[in-house]
Specification:
By secondary structure, the chain is mainly alpha-helical. Helix 3 runs antiparallel to helix 5.
């Protein structure tokens, strides 16, 4: 239980003794202190439960995104001669899917540009899916918790048995 506390205290021993100066990696353990805030945050606990609850939906959206990226990269690699290798096409599709679009690689023929436009539209939809799923589930969980506060202990036991 006190492992996080131990890891967050280790960097202070570096100040006390010069022998610990070699263990500079322990400075990174100061970041571990941030993990302690997680146990005090109700919202973070709700968010983690939402991620666990919607794990299958989020994994299927991730699978869909990866499949779409690979298929579009293959299509762009064969259609547009601007892409010298498959990794260039994969890089371009990933940046187009996330609507970042750095502009360092772009299609040069009409078919490639048409695929680019469709890829951007589908990219917006694929990126929006997980946000919508997480938001809807988060709101549903918060509403369910509010309803539990306003019910009797017997009704709460019945709801717990259903969950």
């Amino acid at each position: 239980m006190a492992l996080i506390d131990l890891l967050s205290i280790l960097p202070t021993f570096q100040v006390l003794n010069e022998a610990f100066h070699l263990a500079r990696i322990t400075r990174l353990f100061k970041i571990v202190r941030l993990l302690k805030f997680g146990r005090y945050s109700k919202e973070l606990a709700i968010f983690i439960s939402v991620l666990k609850e919607q794990k299958s939906v989020l994994l299927s959206v991730l699978t869909l995104a990866i499949f779409y990226i690979i298929m579009t990269a293959l299509l762009m690699f064969t259609v547009d001669d601007k892409f010298e290798d498959f990794f260039d096409a994969l890089y371009w599709v990933t940046s187009a899917l996330t609507t970042v679009g750095y502009g360092d690689i772009c299609p040069h023929n009409d078919i490639g540009r048409l695929i680019s436009m469709l890829s951007s539209l589908v990219g917006v939809a694929i990126i929006a899916l997980p946000s919508g799923v997480i938001t809807a589930s988060y709101l549903h969980t918060v509403e369910r918790l509010k309803q539990r506060k306003n019910i009797s202990p017997e009704e709460e036991a019945q709801l717990a048995a259903i969950d």
